[in-house]
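in:
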């Protein structure tokens, strides 16, 4: 019989250290986070800002935040669902929406610190590489570090759209163009790489969606109506795509807070569990019972159960 060495013995389990909760859940890469949050000793407790870009199944979320001992503090945030206030009624998770969300988050952050007038960013969107630090300003730009979370940093990913939007919005985020759409690495050693800014501009204005819409409209009208039903309902076709995003960028720069929702002057009156609104709507909302009422309710249930048992025995 072969000798089997027991590796996971009592001594092993005594020294076993459980991973952090968010690491076990697969939500946080603490190795990367530690590098982004770490500071020099002579800069302890200074705010080190991060531009966090996250994607869900329905939207893109951008946040400017900094870490403290109590937890992360969010300075400004923007979600692609808010683009409805700026004239983009659908398509909240593509590259063009990510760019607009990054631009919105950047303008809100600068407005909060009173830097929106000093740092306008790149107002002409042409896809060219841009760094706000290269411009001559008396004050240093607002610097952030890109935080991509658990996403793989592949060329052409939507996260680079949010980064480009934040940079064009006036934030200083250290980056290079090697991950942007339109970048082509050198094939041979010693050769220069190429960056096609026009290809990146097409992505920013949703031209890839426009081409797909035109293709479906010609080849499969039924599929086109199903896939782009919200575009059709809003009266937006392939020709109006670029105009829609251009107007949205201008509105974001004018006022990143958007139009405030109108307040509805509706009053509610309650009678027992029935709630009636001044607009004629009725709802049922159960009231919380007191201790005395709960005891009476339980006693009634017990009495009913006992009566049923007595009836069964008879």
């Amino acid at each position: 019989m072969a000798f089997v060495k027991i590796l996971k013995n009592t001594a092993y389990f005594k020294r076993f250290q459980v991973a952090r909760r968010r690491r076990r859940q697969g939500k946080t890469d603490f190795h990367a986070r530690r590098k982004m949050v770490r500071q020099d000793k002579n800069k302890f407790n200074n705010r080190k800002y991060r531009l966090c870009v996250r994607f869900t199944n329905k939207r893109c979320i951008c946040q400017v935040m900094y870490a403290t001992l109590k937890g992360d503090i969010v300075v400004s945030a923007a979600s692609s669902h808010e683009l409805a206030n700026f004239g983009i009624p659908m398509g909240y998770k593509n590259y063009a929406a990510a760019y607009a969300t990054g631009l919105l988050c950047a303008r809100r952050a600068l407005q909060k610190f009173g830097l929106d007038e000093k740092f306008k960013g790149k107002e002409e969107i042409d896809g060219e590489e841009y760094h706000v630090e290269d411009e001559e300003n008396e004050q240093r730009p607002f610097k952030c570090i890109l935080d991509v979370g658990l996403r793989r940093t592949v060329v052409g990913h939507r996260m680079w759209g949010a980064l480009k939007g934040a940079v064009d919005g006036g934030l200083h985020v250290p980056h290079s163009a090697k991950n942007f759409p339109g970048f082509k690495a050198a094939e041979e050693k010693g050769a220069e790489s190429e960056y096609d800014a026009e290809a990146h501009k097409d992505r920013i204005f949703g031209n890839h969606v426009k081409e797909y819409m035109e293709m479906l409209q010609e080849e499969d009208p039924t599929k086109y109506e199903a896939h782009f039903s919200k575009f059709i309902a809003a009266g937006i076709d392939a020709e109006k795509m670029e105009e829609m995003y251009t107007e949205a960028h201008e509105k974001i720069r004018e006022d990143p807070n958007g139009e405030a929702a109108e307040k509805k002057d509706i009053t509610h009156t309650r009678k027992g569990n029935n709630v009636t609104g001044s607009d004629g709507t009725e709802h049922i909302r159960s009231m919380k019972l007191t201790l005395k009422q709960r005891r009476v309710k339980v006693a009634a249930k017990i009495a009913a159960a006992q009566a049923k048992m007595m009836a069964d025995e008879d």
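note: The longest strand covers residues 60-67.
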